[in-house]
Amino acid sequence: MPMDERPTLEDVAAYAGVSRSTASRALNDDAYVSTRAKEKVLGAARELGYSPNQAARSLVTRRTGAVAVVLSEPEANVLDDPYFASVMHGAFRELSDAGVQMLLMFVDTRDDVPRTIKFLEGGHADGALVFAPHKGDPLPTALRLARIPVVYGGRPGTGRRGAHAVDFDNEGGARLAVEHLYDSGRRRIGTVTGMLDHPAAADRLAGWRKGLEAAGLDPADLSEPGDFTMASGEVATAKLLARCPDLDAVFAASDLMAAGAMKALRAAGRKVPKDVAVIGFDDHPTLAPAMEPPLTSIHQDPRQQIREMVKKLLSLLGGENIRPETTVLPVTLAVRDST
């Protein structure tokens, strides 16, 4: 570079060994550029004596510094479910630590989808963390054409391929629950499922069935549908008891339904775990240990899920070329007195 010429953005990028777009974002203090890249660019700018044009700078950033967390679930379900409470808290903390503002959006009905897409396309958020778990939900299909990056919590209910997602090993967790019950001497192991239009609920049912079959047990007549609420767990367990009086264990697809199952068992004069063992799924930290007796549950960590989702999204916003795939997080068994 001749001595009488001012260094350009291209000069800074070349000196730092990064792309022009990364150099531009680093100089504009973009939250989505890695600390290492930002330090290299700023160091190159200092050494070359580069001073950005402030007018041009304001035109090229086009960043809001905000990420939308979109929950495509009826509002009442979201507010009553401890899993979503953990998701919202975890998202706020992880995004805040990254210097990003969180926008919370509810998609209560199908009629809310056009409004949601219009908002996201309107430049109000740089990206979205989306929970849209039900089959037939139009939101994931609508988001395919969105001009912002999207990462899903769990597999989208549409089953769409080519999506960035972070899920838990729901099937493996259910098999883990059945194995634990079988090893403790239980042979009539029923299950209360979640809504089967929900991939996680379908996977947990499949894992329960495979666990029984691997143990040489017949799953016939031992499942009853629920909807992840305490009331549904109580009703479903009462039906299981009426149909299978020799029931000696219940695997509930959520901790809330496990609480309902315990209520039904007490009403029927059955003691937990002496007569019937109970296992939940979620291992919610303020719910499972507080039950009477404390609930054995499949442990999953929503904070870990959110952390991985934010990591993927920040990488996408930073311009990294990431192959769309579902990251599956492991689950473990938290053993307490209910088994």
From TrEMBL:
Gene Ontology molecular function: DNA binding
InterPro entries attached here? HTH_LacI, LacI/GalR-like_sensor, Lambda_DNA-bd_dom_sf, Peripla_BP_I
Q: Does the keyword Cell membrane apply?
A: no
Keyword DNA-binding found: yes
What are the HTH lacI-type domain coordinates in residue numbering? 7-61
Listed A to Z, the keywords are: DNA-binding, Transcription, Transcription regulation
Q: Which PANTHER family match?
A: HTH-TYPE TRANSCRIPTIONAL REGULATOR GALS, LACI-RELATED TRANSCRIPTIONAL REPRESSOR
The name on file for this protein is LacI family DNA-binding transcriptional regulator
Q: Which organism is it from?
A: Actinophytocola glycyrrhizae
